[in-house]
Structure formats: structure tokens, C-alpha cells
């Protein structure tokens, strides 16, 4: 029996992690819990300093039926536990730590105070996306992507302690992640039997020629030109990949934006104007 469309990857190492707070519908909600309607969008938040995201693929539960001295058969059941893992990094952003627990920060002069409370009964729902440089090839094609990654559309996150005030060394900060099943991706796609052959999922691996940047807007019924600052692109070149598609979804329906560099902003033209409070998600490829 041959296996078709098997993705083979030679990893070039972990590169980027994005954090996206989501609302009760599974869409990006912005830092304050609601994305403002209008022409200015928001990009996913880059988590700085991540070194390891130690997740493992979901493994099925296998029950063996044995005879006197040999296996007679097996039953394969869905895993009954949700995947959990820790993100380890050497840089900590106090605002992000507070954000992952749905708490605030308090500023006194130049000092910013947050709170780490791992015993709160609930933590903010968010989407996580990890990417690494790779040499990958789909066996059914003649080419392959230069990046591969995994998207967790719905997770619970809590900031954990660091290594403490020990001797001088690189300090590791950790975030504990509990992945949950979802019926919708943060870019507006509802899972169904026609597109994913399932109605829900936990983790979604992907490959792409360039790095992916999730960008989010909300319509106001009038705006057709949506913008993000060039400075919000998290790379040294701060440039979208020319000649590659920027896939956009308007309330879950694919639309094709016209992308133009206007001064210090990238402008995404979408016509007709998205309705008031309509969600628009762009997954842009960048260099």
C-alpha cells in the first residue's frame, strides 16, 4: 500500500511563535477583547524569545486483544485527553504574561507590575502558531515549502515561574498550554467534512513558501481600504512577499484583496466594503 501526499521535512530549527487572543466565536479579538471597526487592522502578537514549544502529536489509544501468548487483534480509540505542553523562552514580556491570564498591568513611574496567578479557574482563550525553517517536499509535487508549522486554534494559556533569582545565567520563562478542540479557525474557516473531512480539530500542521503573518480587520460598512503599518511586520526587511497571494476571508468567505504599499503602510483594498462588524482576516506571506 502506497502513502500519497506525505510531507517530508528537514527542520532548520524553531523560528517564530504568534499569539492571537480569540473571542467566544473563535475569531481574533485584539488586546482589549474587541477589535475596533475601521481601516486600521492588527497583526498577531509575536512572542519574543521562544526557544522550545514541546508539543506532541495526538496519539490514539490502542487496546490489544491477546490470546494465550500472542496478540489476536487491536482496538484503536480516540485519545481521551487533550494535549498539553510548555513553551520555553529566554525573554519575557510582562504585558503578554498578564494578557495570557486576562489580567492587567499597573505602571508606577518607569516600573510595570503584572500578576502571575496560576490558580485562576480560567485563562484566556487564544490561538497559537509556531513556524520553523525547513526543507520540505510533498511527495505528490515537484517542489516544497521553505517553512512548516502548526496552528493551535484554541488553547488555554498560563504564565509559569522562571528559574528564580539564581546566579547569573540565561533565565527561562515558561507558559503552560492546554490545547482544546475547535470548530473554526481564527481566519474564519469553519471546519466541515467538505474541507477537512472532520467537524473539529485540535492542531493543524501546514507548509508554506514564506513566513505567515495573520492580520485582522473589522468592517464598518464603508471602508474598502484596510491598512497595517510596515513596521508591524516582524522581520528585518519588513516586507510582504512579492508575487505571493495574500489569502483573505470576509466572514469566512474567500475574497481577493489588492495589496499596495502606500507610504509607510500596506493597504488591502476589498470591494465591496465589508458590512459593519464583519470580520476580515488576511494571512499574508512575508519575507
Percent range of helical residues: under 10%
The mean pLDDT is 80
Taken from the alpha-carbon principal axes, the silhouette is globular
**Structural class by secondary-structure content:** mainly beta
Largest sheet: 8 strands, antiparallel
Topology pattern, helix = H, strand = E:
EEEEEEEHEEEEEEEEEEEEE
- Unreliable stretches, pLDDT < 50, 5 or more residues? none
Distance from N terminus to C terminus (CA atoms, Å) equals 39 Å
Q: How many beta-strand elements?
A: 20
CA gyration radius, whole angstroms = 21 Å
Please provide a written account of the structure.
The chain has a domain at 8-60 and 81-210. The model has no long low-confidence stretch (mean pLDDT 80). Strands 1, 3, 4, 7, 10, 11, 12 and 13 form an eight-stranded antiparallel sheet that branches. The chain is globular and about 75 Å long. It is an all-beta fold. It has one helix spanning 94-100; strands at residues 7-21, 38-43, 45-46, 50-53, 61-66, 71-77, 84-89, 106-108, 111-113, 125-138, 147-159, 173-179, 204-208, 211-218, 225-229, 247-250, 253-255, 258-262, 265-269, 279-286. Helices cover 2% and strands 45% of the residues. A hairpin with a 2-residue loop joins strand 18 and strand 19 (265-269).
Amino acid at each position: 500500500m502506497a502513502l500519497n501526499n506525505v510531507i517530508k521535512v528537514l527542520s532548520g530549527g524553531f523560528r517564530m511563535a504568534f499569539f492571537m487572543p480569540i473571542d467566544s466565536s473563535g475569531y481574533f479579538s485584539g488586546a482589549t477583547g474587541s477589535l475596533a471597526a475601521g481601516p486600521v487592522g492588527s497583526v498577531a502578537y509575536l512572542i519574543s524569545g521562544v526557544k522550545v514549544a514541546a508539543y506532541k502529536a495526538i496519539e490514539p489509544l490502542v487496546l490489544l486483544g491477546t490470546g494465550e501468548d500472542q496478540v489476536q487483534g487491536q482496538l484503536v480509540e480516540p485519545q481521551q485527553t487533550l494535549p498539553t505542553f510548555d513553551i520555553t523562552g529566554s525573554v519575557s514580556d510582562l504585558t503578554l504574561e498578564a494578557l495570557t491570564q486576562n489580567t492587567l498591568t499597573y505602571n508606577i513611574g518607569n516600573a510595570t507590575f503584572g500578576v502571575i496567578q496560576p490558580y485562576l479557574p480560567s485563562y484566556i482563550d487564544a490561538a497559537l502558531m509556531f513556524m520553523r525553517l525547513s526543507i520540505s517536499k510533498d511527495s505528490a509535487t515537484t517542489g516544497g515549502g521553505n517553512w512548516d508549522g502548526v496552528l493551535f486554534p484554541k488553547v488555554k494559556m498560563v504564565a509559569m515561574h522562571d528559574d528564580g533569582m539564581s546566579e547569573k545565567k540565561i533565565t527561562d520563562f515558561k507558559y503552560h498550554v492546554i490545547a482544546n478542540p475547535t470548530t473554526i479557525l481564527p481566519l474564519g474557516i469553519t471546519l466541515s467534512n467538505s474541507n477537512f473531512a472532520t467537524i473539529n480539530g485540535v492542531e493543524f500542521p501546514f507548509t508554506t513558501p514564506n513566513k505567515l503573518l495573520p492580520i485582522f480587520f473589522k468592517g464598518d460598512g464603508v471602508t474598502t481600504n484596510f491598512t497595517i503599518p510596515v513596521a508591524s511586520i516582524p522581520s528585518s526587511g519588513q516586507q510582504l512577499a512579492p508575487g505571493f497571494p495574500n489569502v483573505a476571508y470576509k466572514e469566512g468567505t474567500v475574497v481577493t484583496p489588492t495589496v499596495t504599499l502606500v507610504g509607510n503602510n500596506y493597504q488591502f483594498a476589498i470591494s465591496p466594503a465589508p458590512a459593519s462588524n464583519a470580520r476580515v482576516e488576511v494571512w499574508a506571506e512575508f519575507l
